[in-house]
Amino acid sequence: MTKKWYNYFVSVDQDAANVERGSQSTNPAAAKSAAQSVAEIAAGMAAEPQFTKPVSEPTSFEQIYRAAEIPEAPHGYSILRVAQMMESEHIRSLPSDVKRSSVLVGLEAAEVNIKDVIQDAIYRDRALDGYERVQQRALEELESAKSKENADLQADIDRYVTEQRAKIQANNEVIAREKERVTGWRLKKQQEEKKIAETVGYFVSENPITTGDVQAVPPVSKTVKKS
Fold first, then answer.
1. Torsion of CA 198, 201, 207, 209, to 10 degrees
2. Which of 5, 54, 192, 211 shows the smallest number of beta carbons within 10 Å?
3. What is the pLDDT of residues 66-76, one digit of tens each?
4. Hey, CA dihedral for 59, 64, 66, 71, is it positive or negative?
5. Other CB atoms closer than 10 Å to residue 182's CB: what's the count?
6. Taking Cα atoms as reference points, which of 91, 109, 98, 100 lies closest to residue 12?
7. Residue ranges covered by each domain of the chain
8. Is the pTM here over 0.70, yes or no?
């Protein structure tokens, strides 16, 4: 039966782990060398991934990785697989240095260079950053288009409101002119009635002529009576 990677793990006692931690923390040259190695790996890779396939489900990172055509990880050991190794029940509760050592032992047993894993991680990170920029550009284009559409709609609304207000004003002016005309006519009518009433008054004891304002007649009901 094929050995699991964690079967290659060699137990390290606490003192050895402490020594390892101490050597790492007191060796700035080693830390600088590691940083330079990562920088060299990143420098040799394309800064912007090219998405050659559509992504139908943006929440599926696997689709994004496929669309960015990330190269297959050597021996299948991607950064995601290494992350799973870190969370394995066999080592997840161990100190960080021991976890790191055990995973490196497993990678060495599988003939996987840790630089290849780091490169895979950088590919995936750049793919995610690149797709975020794609989504941001799409969002900005959508926002720009919808903002213009909203502005056009608001202009149509403002134009319509202006036109309707103008019609209301015109209607009110027609009503005002008609009221003024009726008021003027009523004054003349009263003068005419007064003249008639005065003349009739010479011949009757009770004058039948009205000289006041006529009460408005209620509108005729348009309700059709059922037979």
1. -30
2. 54
3. 888 888 887 88
4. negative
5. 11
6. 98
7. 5-147
8. no
Question: Measured between alpha carbons, how far is 39 from 32 in angstroms, rounded to an integer?
Answer: 10
Which whole-number Å values give the CA distances from 197 to 4, 170, 182, 194, 215, in the listed order? 125, 40, 22, 5, 19
Whole-angstrom distance, CA of residue 213 vs CA of residue 215: 6
Q: Is residue 153 exposed (0-12), middle (13-18) or buried (19+ Cβ within 10 Å)?
A: exposed
Residue 214: DSSP 8-state: P
Nearest to residue 70, comparing CAs of 139, 5, 131? 131
Residue 154 dihedral angles phi and psi, to the nearest 5°: -65, -35
Q: Residue 43: which of 118, 113, 107, 128 has the closest Cα?
A: 118
Q: Give the Å distances, CA to CA, from 93 to 37, 97, 193, 204.
A: 29, 11, 112, 124
Q: Measure the CA angle with vertex 165, ends 159 and 170; round to 5°.
A: 130
Nearest-10 Cα torsion for 171, 174, 175, 176: 120
161: Cα separation from own chain's centroid: 31
